[in-house]
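BUG-320 | component: ligand-complex export | severity: low

The export step for glycinamide ribonucleotide jobs runs without errors, but we want the raw record kept on the ticket for reference. Input record follows.
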Amino acid sequence: MFQKLQQKWGVNHRQFWIIFIVFGLTGTTTAILTRYVTAWLGMDASSFWVWKLMVRLGMLVFGYQFILLGYGALLGQWAFFWKYEELLLRKLGVLSQKSKIKNQNNSLEPMAKGQQPIPNSQSPIAKGQQPIPKTQLAIFASGAGSNAQKIIEHFKNHPSVRVALVVCNKPGAGVLQIASDKGIPSLLIEKERFFRGDTYLPVLKEYGIDFIVLAGFLWKVPIDLINAYPQKILNIHPALLPKYGGKGMYGMHVHEAVIAAGEKQSGITIHFVNEHFDEGAPVFQATCLIDEKDTPETLAQKIHVLEHAHFPVEIEKIVS
Ligand code: GAR
C-alpha cells in the first residue's frame, strides 16, 4: 500500500516518510491549536455548538493548510506541499485550471503572451568560428525523477546538448524538485489538454525543443506529438521488451510481474516512441540477473542501476 502511494506521489522512499511525518505533525498540531483557540475565545461546553463548529472548521480548512506548509517547508518538502495546496485550490476553483509554466527563474508564472522564449544556448566557440546551436532536450517524467536527474547531470556543460525543459504531469512529483534544484524550467501539464494532441506543441517550440526523452513518463504520447517529433522521442522501459510492456506495465507493476513469472533475468529497453505503448523500435537493451532472493523492490534497484548507467549515454549517442 505504501509503495502504491509512493508511486502515486512520485517521490522517493525518504521523501515519502518525511511527507508522512509532516501530515502526522500537522494533524496533531491542528488539534492542539484548536483546543487553545476555542479556550482563548472563551468557549466551553455551554457555548452554542454552531460557533464551536465554525471555529473548528475554520481551523481545519485554513489553519491546517498553513501548518502543513510550515512543517513541509521546515522538513525540506516545500515543493511537494505547495503543489498539494495548489491542486487543492484549483479543485476548489480558487486558482484557474490553466497550466502554469515555470520560467527560467522557476517562478510559477504562466509564460506571458509575447514573452521571449529561452534562446538556444550555444557551445563555446573559437574566434571567427560559427556558433553551433545546442540540441535542446525536454525530459518528460512523472515520478521521483532519478533518471531525469542523471540525464540533467550528464548533459551539464555538454558542448552540444542542453536539457531545456522538464515536463511533468504530477503536481508534487520528485522530478519537479530536482528540476528546480538544477535550475531547469518545468512545465506542469494537464491530462485533458495533453490528450487533445498538439496543445503543448507551441510551448515545446517556444523552448526550441529538438528532442524528447521519456524518463518514467506514464501517459501515452498523442500522435500529434509523435508526428511533430519523428524518431525524436525516446522512452526507457524497465524490462526486456517485448515482454512485460504495454498498458498498465510501468514501474513496480513491471517488476512484480517479472518476479511472479519466475524470470531468471530482466533488464531495460530504450526505444523510440510510436503510437502504441512500448512498441517503437528498440535501440538498446541491457540485462541483469534475478536470483531467488530478489523481490520486486530489489529488482527495481537493479534496474535503476542499469538505467542510470546507460540511459544518458544512449541518449547522447542518438542525439549526436
Ligand atoms: C523507471 O524505472 C522507468 O524505467 C519507469 O519508471 C521508472 C521511473 O523512475 N518507466 C516506465 O515504467 C515506463 N513504462 P525515476 O522516476 O526514478 O526515473
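Assignee comment: Attached the raw record above. The chain has two domains: 2-98, 135-319.
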